[in-house]
Amino acid sequence: MPAASLRTLLLALLALLVLAVPASASRSMTTSFEAPRDLLDPDPAVRSAALDDIQSLGVDSLRVVLIWQKVAPEPDAKRRPDFNTTDPASYNWGAYDPLLSEAKQRGMKVLLTVSGPVPTWATENKKTGDHTTRPNRGDFAQFVTAVGRKFKDRVDTWSVWNEPNQPQFLAPQYDSKKRPVSGRLYRGLYKAALKGLKSAKVEDPEVLIGETSPRGTGKVVAPLTFLRQALCLDSRDRRRKGCGMLRTDGVAHHAYTTREGPSFVPDGPNDVTIGVLSRLTRLVNRAGASKAIPKRLPLHLTEFGIQSTPDPIFGVFQQRQDEFRNLSERIAYYNPRVATFSQYLLRDDRPDENAKSRLARYPGFESGLRTSSGRDKQAYDSFRLVLSALRRSSRITTLWGLVRPAGKTTTAVVEYRTGRKGSWRKLKTVRTNTRGFYNVRTRTAKNRQYRLTWESPSGENLTGGAIRPLR
Known about the structure:
With 471 residues, this protein is of the alpha/beta class.
């Protein structure tokens, strides 16, 4: 099949996915939030204000990445210092401790990802500045024991390693013959983490595997290639002889896309962006059937965001960021295997004020709901009142969304205008399901924009951003 025809077919399948009937939707999908810049700020007032903000948006679940290197004693030393590696008192937990305490006090759920980079003394090379090469599994198990003892009463779900298919978190990714090896390294670290949680007497922990980034390169192992190795699968996705079943409760993935948005289909067959989640589902199904992992594990999209301007490479305009983010959440909702959909960043990362070029000025992520300086983007209001408009045909447009703070059945009003500056008018009142989601149809009209409005139980009138229909 010609490439153009194949791409057209894939985009058509994507359209069918997001227009699926509600019966096939993920009835238990929850929203998670990750905001390290704000939540791990040493100023308690900044942390508390961010938690207030996140909860006001209708989110009561956090993802926190706990980096081994940041809390370990003498992390740059070549030799491990003399300390009790399983004693929580041996570590400097910094802002992690008060954050998890306050989250617990507020009744928020926490996914804790225990991850590298690691202290130099825990690497194979012991070279100064090396914090990623072949971390010692025994040292990691002992560290996880300390983490479990410290935080077991404050963590609901555990996850092992952030983006282990990326060289800045785990190395090597490939051997000298350019063959992937990081999945095998990760399998050992994952099993070590399970051993550490058991030693900490964490009762029946919920543990996720993966946390993979979406695309492979010459330096990054593609997520499906990585998972096949981590799950001990052969080229036909069957469990290899001599490999036992891994104990896990779900597969975590970061399904970022490009500035093309959710319809982007990566050329690499082992890449998984939000538009091709079926690739990951298929692999998980096959791994379950071969008894490499339990059957029909849920998918957790534990890190996701759409980058906006001023990022000159990946960023889109703020209205487009809003439309792409909402459509991505819609895709996740209509995949019945997705249990978690997340938002990465409350505020954009800090720009490099000393950069010599505009390209170098934005080395981090501009996927926040606010700019780096704290100004609300359009996505801030729309994250609370989600609306995604899809032009299904020349006659029908479907409107899907979520009144996120409601958490129960409620009513909201969809408004419309013609053009960018027309007056807003009421289109229809929508009634949500018991979790705040709705899905309705309307007549397709030229140059129409939509937004959602809602009166909260306290009487506050809230308004989402203006959304254009996507094809």
